[in-house]
Amino acid sequence: MLPVLYRLRADTEGARFVILALAIALVAYVIYSGWKGAGGVDAKGNPVEPTKEDRRNRAIIYGLIGVALAGWGLTYALPEIPILHIKGKGEGIPIHTYGLLIGAGFLTAVTAAAWVSQREWPGKLGLERRDQQFDFAFWAFVGGIVGSRVLFIIVNWKDYAAQPSRIFDLGGGLVFYGGLIGAIIAAIWFTRKNGIDFWRWADVCIPMVSLGQAFGRLGCFSAGCCWGRITTHAKAPFAVEFPGAGLVKDLFGNAGGTASLAFQSQSDALNETRWVVESTGEVTAQAQAGAVRISEWASQHGHTLPVHPTQLYESFGQIILFVVLLSMRRFRRFHGQIIATWLMCYAVLRSTVELFRGDLERGTLHGLVNAVPFDAWYNISISQFISICMFSLGAWVMVKNFRQVNALPKPDLAALTAA
To answer: N or C: where does the chain have the smaller number of CB atoms within 10 Å of the terminal CB?
Structure first.
């Protein structure tokens, strides 16, 4: 496991210059992307050539967003931002395996969506839709980041209510479902703005979400987040143990110094107060014969107890879902059928994986509503609750559209044959 492949430190003038140069290059690229991607379609869906004013306004908007993102990153990377004299964390630029895989998944998904879009719409319109996928990718990214962060704050609202300043903490977490909701909102806005049928656009994009998430869960595995329940190697031969800071290495074999998130959680004596029977993997809230504190065991051994690799479970399931949805395209009977299928199938996949999850940080209904007992069978995770809502929405879309399709008049094939 390699949480951090390499860290570009900000402890020298040369390193700080490189970090500033990278930030400036990022802003310049974002501005160029905004300028180049300007344009739109008319009421009939035909491409419209952008004016110089369109390009300028779009470049300004993208530039402001790029500056905000770069500034946010610089406050993390540098000890102090030049000229502005804003104090930062001075953490440098760590190349996280998680971020690398998330980025690879995002780029792969966008490229695949562009390729499918060109084949979904005929002729020149297909080329326009292909280019619009790259344009939409920017808004999907922004919507996804904002949505995933907002849902993480909602799930952990008690902690943030006690310390509101943590809302802007650069080290805060993200939640996939929040990112999905944010990206869908961005898609609704984008399709309306460009005169595109949302359901048809969604049918093209949604399989790529599974493709990107397959990469993303591999990133979770590398960081040791979203881990599974404690088990034993006898019960689950494929169980894994996530390392602490002393065992982690970077790409060049140097001490990484960054413990896996699973180890940080299990070794946290303040929050991890449960006990475990090592021989059986049974976790209890109270001490009993043969049980040891989970935090003490992890601290002594320098790694976690064996846990289910739930990240790999979901990654494998997402690959299967991606292939199934692409194969469905030739058999669909209405626009929206593929996204409805995804909503139902992913809800089942995620809810099943949640049964093996062991990270309490992901949040449960008890964390939002105190009236729900922690040990109650209906104290499901927030993700399982959202999955239930997603499945219901997908089923509603499927039933509604199939009823409409079946209500359409059927062609008289006998009359056609006689003619």
So the answer is: C
Q: Give residue-wise pLDDT tens across range 178-229.
A: 889 999 999 999 999 999 999 999 999 999 999 999 999 999 999 899 999 9
SS3 148: helix
**Collapsed DSSP state (helix, strand, coil) of residue 351:** helix
Q: Whose CA is closest to 314, among 361, 347, 363?
A: 347
Neighbour count for residue 414 (Cβ, 10 Å): 8
For residue 284, what are the β-bridge partners? 275
SS3 405: helix
Cα–Cα distance for residue pair 195/175, rounded to 1 Å: 30
Number of Cα atoms under 13 Å in the Cβ half of residue 408: 8
Buried-exposed string 42-64: b where 16+ CB fall within 10 A, e elsewhere: eeeeebeebeeeebeebbeebbe
pLDDT by residue (tens digit) across 59-111?
999 999 889 888 888 888 888 877 777 788 877 888 888 889 999 999 999 99
In the chain, domain spans: 1-91, 92-228+310-407, 230-307
Tell me how far apart the alpha carbons of residues 394 and 250 are, in angstroms, rounded to a whole number.
43
DSSP-assigned states of every residue in 175-238:
-HHHHHHHHHHHHHHHHHHTT--HHHHHHHHHHHHHHHHHHHHHHHHHHT-S-B-B--TTT-TT
pLDDT at residue 253, as a whole number: 74
What is this structure's pTM? Answer: 0.80
